[in-house]
User: Fold this.
Amino acid sequence: MMNYQKFFIEEQSKKENINNMSCSISSISYCPVKTLSFQSIETCNVKKDLGMINDRIFAFSRGVDLEKAKSMEKNPKERKLNNLLTLKNSPALNKYNFTYNKNRLSLNLKEKELITISTDIYEERIKLSEKLIELENSLAKPIFLLKNIEFPFFDTSHSNNIFNSISLINLNSVKDFEKKINEKVEFQRFRGNFYIDGLDAHEERNWIGKTIKINNISFKVEKNIPRCVAINLKPKTDDNSLNLLQSLKKTYNHFDMGIYLKALEDGKINVGDRVQLSQ
Assistant:
């Protein structure tokens, strides 16, 4: 009984400490095309069990025929990371960016628009794929632009435990990592949706299995985010000279940075919203 009381008191103390801190959303980003783009926004809509609206609703298949690509587009269980263009298998794409607005998708390089298409027109999707191959001939071919609004191309939508997710990065955890390895670490390398400030470094790891509230919207904290070699790429370049993945393992004895959330309610999240531990 005494052990239970001690545990309860400790948990309550943690909750009070977190809720008394000025922990809030510092910035919000979403990625219209899986792994290949990020747009900063001031506010976003989230949907229960889906995640952030328009996040990762597109992806490019890689090295599979059209029939297989269509199957991957419809069914998350048919998706394998190696059959999708990612920074892990195609690091040259890190210097490009995609922007999405009102069903129009643009491919950009250094703020210059290279091509814009209507995503509802199949022929234009093909044109975009051809343009990407023209720019980067080393890509595994063929490639096809896929779209799925109901089950986007989240990293967690082609795993054994399939769920739609939102990623949260604690900026103080990134700063702690940066300090320990004595290297500049851009937070954008971790490609998060929500970046938060005002929380002790790595405290988010204690949230696994719990519920947090942002702007009175509940999110289940599902798991830590295991990282891959994509974090070695400096934002908007193909420079991978800094081996951050190895440094993560050496520094913390794991490859994690950030946590996955699952939206339990519909609502709107804004930059500046407080983040509170619910249970």
User: Anything to note?
Assistant: The first helix runs from residue 2 to 20. The CA atoms of residues 247 and 253 lie 9 Å apart. The first strand starts at residue 24 and ends at 30.
